[in-house]
Design brief:
- GO terms for molecular function: lyase activity.
- Residues 29-246, 324-408 form the Aminotransferase class V domain.
- It comes from Ruegeria atlantica.
- There is one protein chain.
- Helix 2 packs antiparallel against helix 10 (268-288) and helix 4 runs parallel beside helix 5.
- It contains 14 helices and 17 strands.
- The protein is an alpha/beta fold and 419 residues long.
- The two termini are 39 Å apart.
- It has helices at 6-14, 41-51, 62-81, 95-109, 124-137, 155-159, 184-194, 215-218, 243-246, 268-288, 294-318, 356-365, 380-383, 402-418, and strands at 21-22, 26-27, 29-30, 88-92, 115-119, 140-144, 166-172, 199-203, 222-225, 237-241, 319-320, 323-324, 332-334, 346-351, 368-369, 371-374, 390-395.
- It has 2 domains: 2-41 and 294-418, Aspartate Aminotransferase, domain 1; 45-278, Aspartate Aminotransferase, domain 2.
- The strands form 5 sheets. It has a 7-stranded mixed β-sheet with strand order 4-10-9-8-7-5-6, sandwiched between helices. It has a 4-stranded antiparallel β-sheet with strand order 13-14-17-16, covered by helices on one side.
């Protein structure tokens, strides 16, 4: 277990850039991981190396062939990391852009008059794309309401609204507002029980950093991540698509390979940084288990991350030492409840008598980085039904520590004492 091994926590933190300080602010505790996780030092070094190479991947010269090899290796690494025995990986502008592309393609091949199903908990990356392309393609959009008290949506919720004419479905793997993880495999099975040929596309952007990905187990057709939220850098997204989705009519160059989904010259550096991320999970798995196979080590790393991040969120909620937890502070309300087993490294709260934006600034002045979520086009689907205009999102990752959480609890406790 990570929490029982201080030396391992130190080794983990040593692999990340700016883990305890911000180059603009100085000393800083980073609880804004849902907005973009810390970057591996190896990612920064690798990115800089490939940024200086002028050759296009695939050209018949040593650099062109070498960078193409880097891209090919990264796709193989992704297949191990995400457990994909078929389909293909490709990079795009961002996770959001890739979700739009996949959903657009699925909607435009769907039979006229069929349906698109999604849920109200989803990030606008999928909800906006599904609603827009359903209307353009002459499809009916079906909204599955999420549970306001639980902050998630279930397979039973989908089943209640499923019909055989559902041709496209979207699923959110984890909410960046409530922090709750959805059972993608169960939801996918519920969809396919009623509509076996439905094209299912998953937003895995918030979930991916927690290290438990199993595409073969999900039985879906598309899955997108944003690597800057998985210890890499900004500027690109990664998608996986099934062989079925790969072969469907999609945006492509005339006479290009029929299953090609990438546009233009590839950035070898972005792919190379993916390999660094996978190597990190492999390393962590070797530290927390005796597994020898890469996939098994990655699975072990995912289990260790889940256990430690659950420990961190429980510490924030229940308290540590002589500090009360968030649940015991009368001036604090925890979104989706204090006891929610679906939580993935994130606690969103409201502090009575304080505008969330002000709380975030007060914490920031003390070197504690959090974030405000407002009832806008990003988070209104979650906050408005709760009668909230805003909340404070506190998001942890496995390089955070109990000592950092103690600082946070102390600062929030004072807010109640000062009124």
């Amino acid at each position: 277990m990570i929490q029982d091994n201080p030396a391992l926590i130190d080794a983990i933190r040593d692999r990340f850039a700016h883990v305890g300080t911000c180059p603009f602010q100085g000393e800083r505790i980073f609880f804004e991981n849902a907005g973009g996780a810390l970057t591996l030092k190896s990612v920064a070094e690798t990115s800089a190396f490939y940024a200086a190479i002028p050759d296009n991947p695939g050209r018949i010269n040593p650099a062109g062939q070498g960078t193409q090899g880097v891209i090919n290796k990264a796709k193989d690494d992704l297949a191990v990391f995400m457990n994909a025995s078929s389909g293909q990986f490709f990079a795009g502008e961002s996770g959001t852009e890739l979700l739009f592309r996949m959903i657009r393609t699925a909607c435009l091949v769907a039979p006229k008059g069929s349906k698109v199903i999604g849920s109200s908990i989803e990030h606008p990356a999928t909800r906006s794309a599904a609603c827009r392309w359903a209307e353009i393609a002459g499809l009916e959009y079906v909204n599955v309401p999420h549970g306001n008290d639980t902050g998630l949506v279930t397979a039973d919720d989908y089943t209640a609204l499923m019909t055989p004419d559902v041709a496209v479905a979207t699923i959110l793997h984890a909410s960046p507002v409530t922090g709750m993880g959805m059972d993608v495999a169960a939801i996918s099975a519920a969809i396919r029980f009623v509509a076996p040929d439905c094209l299912i596309i998953v937003d895995g952007i918030q979930h991916a950093a927690h290290g438990q990905l199993d595409l073969d187990g999900y039985n879906v057709d598309g899955y997108a991540i944003s690597p800057y939220k998985v210890f890499s850098r900004h500027g690109y997204g990664i998608a996986w698509i099934s062989d079925k989705l790969s072969a469907l009519p999609h945006d492509m160059l005339i006479d290009a390979p029929a299953t090609g989904w990438e546009f233009g010259t590839r950035d070898a550096g972005s792919y190379a940084t993916v390999s660094e991320v996978v190597a990190y999970f492999d390393w962590l798995g070797s530290e927390v288990s005796d597994e020898t196979e890469p996939r098994k080590r990655i699975e072990a790393a995912g289990r260790a991350i889940l256990a430690y991040e659950t420990h961190l969120t429980n510490t924030a909620i229940n308290g540590t030492g002589n500090l009360p937890g968030l649940r015991d502070m009368d001036h604090v309300t925890i979104l989706a409840g204090a006891d929610n087993p679906a939580r993935e490294g994130l606690v969103s709260i409201v502090v009575e008598g304080h505008v969330s934006e002000d709380v975030v600034e007060i914490l920031n002045q003390q070197g504690i980085r959090t974030h405000t979520r407002k009832a806008d086009h990003y988070s209104g689907n979650v906050l408005t039904p709760l009668g909230l205009t805003d909340c404070i999102r506190i998001s942890f990752c496995h390089y955070n520590t109990e000592q950092e959480i103690a600082r946070l609890l102390g600062a929030i406790k004072v807010l109640g004492e000062n009124g």
